[in-house]
Structure formats: structure tokens, C-alpha cells
Design brief:
Elements (H helix, E strand, L loop, with lengths): L6 E6 L5 E4 L2 H10 L5 E7 L3 H11 L3 H6 L8 E4 L3 E12 L2 E12 L2 E6 L1 H6 L2 H11 L5 H14 L1 H21 L6 H29 L11 H71 L2 H7 L4 H29 L3
Parallel strand pairs: 3-7
Antiparallel strand pairs: 1-2, 1-3, 4-5, 5-6, 6-7
Length: about 350
């Protein structure tokens, strides 16, 4: 089996010193013969199924474990088999629209660790930096401690993502409170979905590490338990922070709903005021329109006489003004009694 560019083969000697093998066939044949002490680490980034199945055969992995690597629902879990443990863990990938999760699979044996990562994980968190750090510091303690190093780095990337998420919520909240920001309901929905996925992932990951601490598998030695205990504490604290962000999101939605209701109430009040003004004017001019309709014809001249129009029409106009004033006074009195 020829190793591809997205699969790298490493070996740790008993002291934890790292070396990389360029020839996959030699690497696997030496392991099968048991000619090398220490343990092996194979890192697969976005492998083809056929390639991963070939590797799984060499390490005695169950077919169901291989199938988990190609599932689209990244739910963290741990499966304990007689000869190895299969773990699913999520990595946080920075994204402009929120928090995005990328699944990583790990297979831990007595003398090997197989890591299977998504292609986007390599772009955001390249394994070359991890290899450089491991090569510089070494990994004493066997494959379980190498697994801890992977999980620890993944958990460390959660805190900046949660902080950025909280800062974005605060920015939107300030914008709503001051009226200076534009609120996008679609953005809030996307933030809620990504945050719910993160909380769900952290909850499952905490349970996963808890099962490791209970030593459900003998592959995790007594010496590794304090390290996984520290990992558990970090996950618990980040889950609390995620819960705080959830409450902030709820407050943000409530604030937006309140602001929307206030805006609707203000618009309704303005409309009511406009209707009142138009009604006020209409009621005043209704009797005047009636009078002008009746007396605007020749009937008024016939009643007063053709020779008295110079006096009659000014008196009529003065009477209409009086009627308008009396009507306006009555309407204002009605408003005063209603408390308006």
C-alpha cells in the first residue's frame, strides 16, 4: 500500500522521540514483525475510504469504526473494543458566520494511535505545527498521552471561539440598545444554531473524557488520569461559558423583541394622533359644509332679500366661524375629560 500525501507515518521510540517514515510499506511491515519498540502514529487528513480501510486492516480496526469516519453528524463519543478504543472528537474551525465544528476520529491501541481528520481541520489547524511541537518536546507516556495532546489542543481552541462569540453578542446588544447598529435576524438564527451545536458537542465531549477517567478501557494508564482530569475541568468550564452565552442570546432576542414592540407602538401612536387630527378637522368642517351647502345657493339671498346681501353674507360667515369655534371647544373639552 502506497501512502498518499494526506497520510503521514510517524514513530515514537521508548523515550518519546518522534521520527517520520516516508515509506508506508516498510513502516507497516516493521510493526507487523514487532521489530520496532515504542509506538506508531498515523495521521490521515481527508483520506479516501479505500486507503483508510487498508490501514484499518493492518491495525485490526472494526469496519464500523471506519464507517464512523465518514459520518456527517459529528457527535463526540468513545467506543471501547477489546484491542483498541475509537473516539470521535470535534475541532472548532473559525468561521465568519459563527462557530463551525469539524469531526476528528482517533483509534488508540497499545502501540499505536491513528488520527483521522477532516480536510478543513488541516487548513485551520495544520498538523505540521503539531508535529513540530511534539518533535521538540517529545511525548513520554505512550499513545494515550499523544491522544491527550490532540484533545488538549482541540479544547484550547474552544475558548477563543467562545470569547469571540460573546464579543459579537455584546456588539449586537450595544447596537440595539443605542440604535446605532443594524440587527439582522438571520444572523442571530445562524449564531443560535452554531452555538447550540457547540454546547451539544462540549456536553458529549465532557462525558467522553469522564468515561476515560473512569478507566473503562485499560489502554488509559493510571499516570494519564490527571491529564484527562485537567481536560475534563476545562471542558466543564467552557460548557459553563457556553451556557452564559446562551443566556446572553436569550436576552438579546428579548431585547430585540422589546425594541420591535416599542417601534410598533410608536408607529401606532403616531397613526392614532394623525387620525385624531383629521377627525378633529373633519368634525369642525362638517356643520360648515352643511350650512354652505344650504345657504350657498340663492335661497339665502331670497330669505334676506336681494338688497341686504352686503350685511347678510358677512353675518353668515361670522356665524360659521362661531359654530366652528364652539365645535372646537366641545371637542377639546371631550379630550380633556378623556385625559388626553
Amino acid at each position: 500500500m502506497e501512502g498518499k500525501m494526506n497520510t503521514r507515518y510517524f514513530h515514537f521510540d521508548p523515550k518519546g522521540t518522534l521520527s517520520e517514515s516516508a515509506d508506508a510499506v516498510v513502516f507497516l511491515s516493521r510493526r507487523e514483525r514487532g521489530t520496532e519498540a515504542g509506538f506508531a502514529w498515523i495521521d490521515c487528513c481527508g483520506p479516501e475510504r479505500i486507503e483508510l480501510e487498508d490501514i484499518a486492516v493492518n491495525f485490526g480496526l472494526h469496519r464500523l469504526s471506519v464507517d464512523d469516519c465518514f459520518e456527517e453528524s459529528p457527535i463526540p463519543k468513545i467506543d471501547v473494543f477489546p484491542e483498541y478504543c475509537a473516539l470521535v472528537f470535534n475541532d472548532v474551525i473559525p468561521d465568519r458566520e459563527g462557530i463551525r465544528l469539524s469531526e476528528s476520529n482517533f483509534f488508540l491501541g497499545r502501540d499505536f494511535l491513528l488520527s483521522v481528520r477532516r480536510a478543513e481541520s488541516e487548513g485551520a489547524c495544520p498538523v505540521s505545527k503539531f508535529v513540530e511541537r511534539i518533535g521538540r518536546n517529545g511525548v513520554p507516556g505512550g499513545p494515550a498521552m499523544l491522544l491527550h495532546s490532540f484533545l488538549d489542543e482541540a479544547v484550547d481552541r474552544v475558548f477563543p471561539a467562545i470569547e469571540d462569540f460573546a464579543d459579537r453578542i455584546s456588539e449586537i446588544e450595544d447596537g440595539i440598545a443605542t440604535g446605532a447598529g443594524f440587527f439582522d435576524a438571520g444572523e442571530l438564527s445562524a449564531m443560535r444554531r452554531s452555538h447550540m451545536a457547540l454546547r451539544k458537542s462540549l456536553n458529549y465531549e465532557r462525558e467522553l473524557v469522564s468515561r476515560i477517567r473512569r478507566r473503562e478501557s485499560p489502554l488509559f494508564g493510571e499516570a494519564t488520569l490527571p491529564y484527562f482530569g485537567d481536560l475534563y475541568d476545562h471542558l466543564a468550564s467552557y460548557l459553563d461559558l457556553a451556557e452564559s452565552n446562551r443566556e446572553m442570546l436569550g436576552n438579546l432576542m428579548q431585547m430585540n423583541l422589546t425594541m420591535s414592540n416599542n417601534s410598533m407602538a410608536e408607529a401606532s401612536n403616531r397613526m392614532n394622533l394623525s387620525v385624531r387630527r383629521l377627525t378633529f378637522i373633519t368634525v369642525i368642517f362638517m356643520p360648515l359644509t352643511l350650512i354652505s351647502g344650504i345657504f350657498g345657493m340663492s335661497e339665502f339671498t331670497m330669505m334676506t332679500g336681494p338688497g341686504h346681501w352686503k350685511i347678510a353674507y358677512p353675518l353668515l360667515a361670522l356665524g360659521m366661524v362661531g359654530i366652528a369655534a364652539i365645535t372646537a371647544r366641545i371637542l377639546r373639552g371631550m379630550d380633556a375629560r378623556d385625559g388626553k
